[in-house]
From TrEMBL:
Name of the protein described by the UniProt record: NAD(P)/FAD-dependent oxidoreductase
Catalysed reactions listed for this entry: [thioredoxin]-dithiol + NADP(+) = [thioredoxin]-disulfide + NADPH + H(+)
Lineage, highest ranks first: Bacteria, Bacillati, Actinomycetota, Actinomycetes, Streptosporangiales
Superkingdom per UniProt: Bacteria
Entry keywords, A to Z: Flavoprotein, Oxidoreductase
Length: 333
């Protein structure tokens, strides 16, 4: 795998934590652990969700920074405190035999055959966006095709925008983008609209097109319009669409983490408790893998909180082991 940065080798010893995913959540979780003098390894597959985007927005102090630059800074932050970064894919993560007491162990296997042994796992795999199957749409993802008014809205302000409806969530989506442009067209794509919603759209100057969509037209400069089934083309420069957001589960199914579906087919995510804790002792989840709508700042904050709680859990286990070793006739785990 080519990620463009140096990678560490798997250590032979059991480490305190393995972070699966090198995005904002994973790196910030690793940073908290490294600064707590924990041995931590981040396994980074090098395919962040926001890679096609020109910049990260809504992140105080780093507004507009390129996604790749932000992650490069994050990796430097982690390694500065002794954390290690490994470029690669996790093929499996499973519980392993644990010592006496409540100090779990896990085995993490990498695509190249390497094996990591760890006491705790932070799953920060992120999500993948599933676009509707409209010809010509996917090639413009992250540029002329956007999904988040807070991530991309300012950059597409005042452009002719089309909303490709995927379900009830698209109604709210349309009203959010109407804040950013006076030229908005809503393509129902068979999802249907009640009269009240049509009246609300009309009041805000949103044009509704019920004719089925056949594809997205473009030229060398980007999107030019939406082609309808009857052959007409509605000129547009930007397409906004609510994607189906699916937590990435590759490599972590062996942990048997609980998952849940969002309503109306909007997505699927890992179920977590406070600070990203899960029903599997020793495993936390942070970022878009559990909070599908979190922006970069929110994902990073969740990673930091999970990292702090992992360290606290390890402190308890270390103290329990020390206490057991101090008692006559016992040995530390």
């Amino acid at each position: 795998m080519t990620t463009g940065y140096p990678t560490d080798e798997p250590p032979p010893e059991t480490v305190d934590a393995v972070v699966i995913g090198g995005g904002a959540a994973g790196l910030n979780g690793a940073l908290m652990l490294a600064r707590s003098r924990r041995s931590v390894i981040v396994v980074d597959g090098g395919t962040p969700r926001n890679a096609p985007a020109d910049g990260v927005h809504g992140l105080l102090g780093l507004e507009g920074i390129a996604p790749a630059e932000l992650l490069s800074i994050g990796r430097e932050n982690v390694t500065r405190y002794g954390g290690r970064i490994m470029a690669g894919e996790v093929t499996s993560a499973v519980p392993a035999a644990s010592p006496a007491g409540s100090d779990p162990r896990f085995t993490v296997t990498l695509a190249g055959g390497g094996v990591l042994r760890t006491r705790r796992i932070l799953v920060a795999t992120g999500l993948r966006d599933q676009l509707p199957d409209v010809p010509g749409l996917a090639r413009h993802w992250g540029h002329g095709v956007v999904h988040c008014p807070y991530c991309h809205g300012w950059e597409v302000r005042d452009e002719p925008i089309g909303i490709l409806a995927v379900g009830p969530a698209s109604v709210h989506h349309a009203l959010l983008f109407r804040q950013l442009t006076d030229d908005l067209v809503y393509f129902t794509r068979g999802t249907g609209l009640d009269e009240d919603t049509r009246a609300r759209f009309a009041a805000r100057g949103v044009r509704v097109v019920d004719t089925p969509v056949a594809g997205v037209e473009s030229d060398e400069k980007g999107i030019t319009g939406v082609r309808l089934a009857d052959g007409r083309i509605v000129p547009r420069r930007v397409i906004a669409v609510a994607t189906t957001m699916l937590a990435r589960t590759d490599g972590v199914t062996g942990l048997a983490l609980p998952m849940a579906d969002l309503p109306k087919g909007m997505g699927r995510h890992f179920v977590t408790g406070p600070a990203g804790s899960t029903s599997v002792p020793g495993v936390w989840v942070a970022g878009n893998a559990t909070d599908l709508s979190a922006q970069v700042g929110g994902a990073a904050a969740a990673g930091a909180l999970a990292g702090a709680h992992i360290n606290a859990d390890l402190v308890t286990a270390d103290t329990d082991a020390a206490l057991a070793g101090a008692r006559p006739g016992t040995a530390a785990a």
